[in-house]
Amino acid sequence: MAYKQYHQSIENLLLTQFIKSSHIFDDSDEDFDNENDSEEEENDMIFLGLSSLLDSRYSSSRTYNVVKSQEWWCSIVPNYDDVRFKRIMRMDPQSFQSLITKIETHSIFQSTGNKQQAPVELQLAIFLRRIGSKDEIFSICSRFGIAEGTVYLYCKRVMLAILSLKNSLVIWPTEESRKIVHSGFKNIGGFENVIGAIDGTHIILGIAPLNQPEIYWNRKKKYSIQCQGIVNHRGVFIDYEIGWPGSVHDAKVYRNSFFYQNVSTLIEGWIIYLETQRTHYLVFLSNPLIILKIIYKHNLILLILYIV
User: Fold this and answer.
1) Disulfide-capable partner of 218 in 52, 108, 149, 246 (CB 3.0 to 4.6 Å)?
2) pLDDT in 10s for each residue of the chain, 308 residues
3) Pick from 209, 189, 254, 206: which is nearest to 227 by CA?
4) How far is it, in rounded angstroms, from Cα 45 to Cα 12?
């Protein structure tokens, strides 16, 4: 209580000195010399008052006794079956443990101070819940028993750890793996030499970006960024292009993608390329690819392409 009164007194003093110095209510006929005599003293008082306020981080005391509990994570989640676990984490338990194995050795999870970090399992679970649900931050904080800033911290750590795996996980198939992909697509639709299926999507942004928001406004009247992906027969990404603003046409995203610019080294000889009907296939009518034949089957446009 004394703490608040002390700062209130300083604020009142500063306000009083400001009013006096601005002569808002000054109707007297004092000489200009007298005003100059007191000006330096008043400035000193204002400076000391501001310094006192700046020395304190908060103008009022903070409450640290917020009740938190990780009972749900520690006692309830371990008893979930695979189906319920996947509904919560958007990932089955086996994949969850596999991802932990891949990222737990990353340096970002190594404690640099005396306080130990939370288990990687908890940090990954919070990250998955954050990006895989529409829960508000407060809901996540309540469920996992952590503070709001901790949610952002854990998500940042996990994202950096996952991004470091890109070169080892997103790999274009070559040699033996290429044969496996060809065989996989043949088993699905009976077509030879299919190397991948491509499509695009929009990643919706929660709020408009601060910088040039208009270029992120897409045709569906939402703010988004573009994502173009190529997957193998198992639906695993073998290439992706992400980050273009939502208003950019799919054709431009494709022409500037890693695949397009390196197609001569990624694809050899005859190739079949799968594309959904919803995306205009004229995007592919450009060198170094030539469409030889277009076949419609099972709502797919199968583009038989040959490298010139």
Assistant:
1) 246
2) 555 665 666 666 666 665 655 554 445 555 545 555 555 665 665 566 556 555 555 555 655 566 788 899 999 999 999 999 999 999 999 999 999 999 999 999 998 888 899 999 999 999 999 999 888 999 999 999 999 999 999 999 999 999 999 999 999 998 899 999 989 988 988 878 888 888 899 999 988 999 999 999 999 999 999 999 999 999 999 999 999 999 999 889 999 999 889 888 887 655 545 544 443 333 333 333 433 344 333 344 444 443 33
3) 254
4) 12
CA distance 301 to 283: 13
Nearest to 198 by CA among 227, 231, 155, 173: 231
Q: What is the DSSP letter of 183?
A: H
What are 240's two structure tokens?
Answer: 């992706």
Work out the number of other CB atoms within 10 angstroms of the CB of residue 239. 19
Where do we find the tokens 């695009």?
Answer: 200
Separation between Cα atoms, residue 294 and residue 77, nearest integer Å: 50
